[in-house]
Description:
The chain has 2 domains: 2-146 and 233-273, Bacterial extracellular solute-binding protein, family 7 (D-Maltodextrin-Binding Protein, domain 2, 3-Layer(aba) Sandwich); 149-231 and 276-332, Bacterial extracellular solute-binding protein, family 7 (D-Maltodextrin-Binding Protein, domain 2). Helices cover 47% and strands 16% of the residues. It is built from 14 helices and 13 strands. The protein has helices spanning 2-18, 40-53, 74-80, 112-125, 127-136, 160-163, 175-181, 194-199, 210-215, 242-245, 250-284, 295-301, 305-315, 319-332, and strands at residues 25-30, 58-63, 85-87, 138-142, 145-146, 149-153, 167-170, 185-188, 205-209, 224-226, 233-234, 238-241, 288-290. Helix 1 crosses helix 11, helix 4 packs across helix 5 and helix 13 (305-315) packs antiparallel against helix 14 (319-332). The longest helix is centred in the C-terminal third of the chain and has 35 residues, at 250-284. Mean pLDDT is 92; it is low at 1-18.
Amino acid sequence: MLRILGMCAALGLMAGTASAEIEEMTLRYAVHVPENNVVSDSDKFFAEKVEELSGGKIKVDIYWNRALGRQAEMLPLISAGAVDFTTLETGQYGETPVVGFGNSLPMTFFDAREMVTISRGLYEEVAPIQEEMERIGATMIWVRHLPNYRLICREPYKTMADLRGKKLRSYGAYVPIMWQSIGANPVNVVATEIYDGLAKGVIDCAYLPIPFLSSYKLYEPAPYLLDLKLGMIEYAPTLVPTVVWNNWSEEVQEIVREAGRQAEEFAISQTEENTDAMEADMIAAGATLVTFEEKDAFKAAVPDMIEEWAKRQREQGRPAAADAVSNYVRSRMSN
């Protein structure tokens, strides 16, 4: 906290002496989620901090819900410097298999601050991550987390036997490994189709963090919320195209970095507080909290997901990256 206050004080002095030298500009921030998403508060906070720390010289206009480009268009937009900031779902691109580590793995991170600290360290200290960022032409400004994923189900599943053979919402390369390890059947369903999938019995449970379970009102077709926590992930770091970053003065760069540091702190507490409130709202709206009775057995059944990730990297010809990332993460995890 003292470090942050010291930085803020330094920037406050800078604002009094150097803000007059900062060129007025309006920057475009491409965000892939809607404005009413639980994580969107931290994007608004970041934009406000940039303006505040620049003495009002730099304004950030946020374009919500992919208004500046679809998912498939974001990497070309970054490399061309066609946006000033963007959130990027790093685990969704073939071009970012190493950078996407934190955006991919279930049952790995359970503490928000630890996850954010490790994620930032990967970008700042681990060469294969830095090399991949250089290839896509991006500079990381700040990272955030998505709160623990949970299951909401059509029936009140309480044991491993209850979940065996059930159809559980899945995505990506690693969530299916988790479900198969407990004898369940992974079913890929995009987020916007989960409600109908539950209502029609295509899936028995939805797998998402509380804010998304709540915003999609999935407690209507599936009222049973399991108290089993399935891990946090890194959620779409905020990046600046390197060609844009290099055109900014050192004063502007430091303002943006400090706004990002403060947004990280804000997001850690705000996201968890919002999540707790949303869970209470879901229960008030009719969801039933179900105690899963075999949490330790579930954890024991799921393989080491870091090793699963490293194995996949080795199979795809990236053994050095597999070792560098997995060793860094393990050395900094509390358990």
